[in-house]
Structure formats: structure tokens, C-alpha cells
Amino acid sequence: MTATLIAQIVVSLDGYIENEDHEIDFEFIDAEYDEFILQTLRSLDAMVFGRKAYEPLSQYWPTAAENPDATPVDLEQARLMHELPKYVVSTALSETDWHNTHILHDVTELEMIKTQHDRPIAIFAGGGIISSASDHGLVEEYRLTVSPVRLGSGTPLFRRSAKRVPLTLIDSRVFGSGAVLLTYRSAAA
User: Fold this and answer.
1) Is 133 in contact with 107 (CB distance < 8 Å)?
2) Is 131 helix (H, G, I), strand (E, B) or coil?
3) Which residue of 31, 43, 97, 153 shows the fewest CB atoms closer than 10 Å?
4) Cα(165)–Cα(135) distance, rounded to whole angstroms?
5) Which helix (H) or strand (E) holds 46?
6) Euclidean distance between CA atoms 49 and 128, whole angstroms
7) Is 155 helix (H, G, I), strand (E, B) or coil?
């Protein structure tokens, strides 16, 4: 069996994944969304990151469980982030020190990675990685959490592409914060 590749990311109403200063301060974090992320992590076989997103995550998660204010959900997320296989797509990295992390030098290597897993694999961060994987027809499902804010400018989720990707809405969910999770299946899937 081949794993489903999911692109899961938070975007502003106008489609940006970060503001002009490369900050994600518009994203919301609340208990309901944390529980959703925990359920997502429990359902996965692996995670994929771009290098720019990977670097701060690899600094935060290895010690996240040591935070004295960590909730039980935080502790479980930290455990799963530690244990799950992680793939970072980068031509700049040659080694990593975050447990169970593997370097891919090209997004097309995800095709082979998908054959090594049965449960879903999620691309959690990196607009460039999501765009590239989408352009190569590797993403079967998109989970976009639309944060209730219009940024006006920043880094768009998708770069320009000559390729049209028809999608079918398969689920939606509204969080108490006003954010909306939209889940789409790629027509190519």
C-alpha cells in the first residue's frame, strides 16, 4: 500500500502562510485546535518539512516536554513529534540532530517515501515544498486551516504554476476561534 500525502498548513484569508517579516503571529492556538493537531499526529506515519520550517521546529520540539507549563496534550504532541519519522527536504542540510529525521534532497523523493508507509504522511510546513509536491502530482489531500485574518501581503502558500489542480471539498470544520478547516481531495488522487 502507498501512503496518502497530505498538505496541512494554516493560511490567512488571502492565502498567505506568513507575513512580510516571515512571522506566523496571525495563527491562532487554542485547546480545540491543539486537540485536532494531536489527533492528526496520532493518525500519521511520517511528517515532511521544508528546511526553513524544519530549523525552528527542530530547536523547539526536542525539549518541549520539559516545559513546566506543558499540558497533557502538549506532552503527547512532543512525544509524537519526537517519535514519528521526519523528512526534511533540503539541498543545504547534510545532517540533522533531531531524532528520526531524514534528509531528502529533492521533493520527488517523496514518491518513494510514500511507498514505505501505509498511513498518511503530512507536509506540515513550507509553502515551497507544498507547491513543488503539488506541481509533481504528489499531494492527494489538502487540509487548509483558514485563520480569520487578512494579511494583505506576505509569503503565499502557492507560488505561480502553469498547472491547474482540480480539487473536491470532502470536509469542513469551524473552530471556536473562527478559523475554518477546509479539506480537499485532489482530482488526480
Assistant:
1) yes
2) helix
3) 97
4) 8
5) strand 46-50
6) 10
7) strand
Cell numbers describing residue 115: 511507498
Stretch among 89-93, 126-130, 158-162 having the lowest mean pLDDT: 158-162
User: Is pLDDT of 127 > 90?
Assistant: no
CA distance 9 to 11: 6
Determine the average pLDDT of the residues in 62-81: 93
- Cβ atoms within 10 Å, residue 61: 18
Q: Are 12 and 151 in contact (CB under 8 A)?
A: yes
Cβ atoms of residues 75 and 34 within 8 Å: no
Q: How far apart are the first and last CA of the chain?
A: 14
Domain total in the chain = 1
Residue 61 has pLDDT above 80, yes or no: yes
pLDDT digits (tens, 9 = 90+) for 7-55: 999 999 999 999 888 888 877 778 899 999 999 999 999 999 999 889 9
pLDDT value, residue 189: 64
Strand order in the sheet with 121-125: 101-104, 86-89, 46-50, 121-125, 5-12, 141-147, 180-186, 167-174
Cα distances (angstroms) measured from residue 174 to each of 41, 100, 103, 179, 184: 19, 33, 35, 6, 15
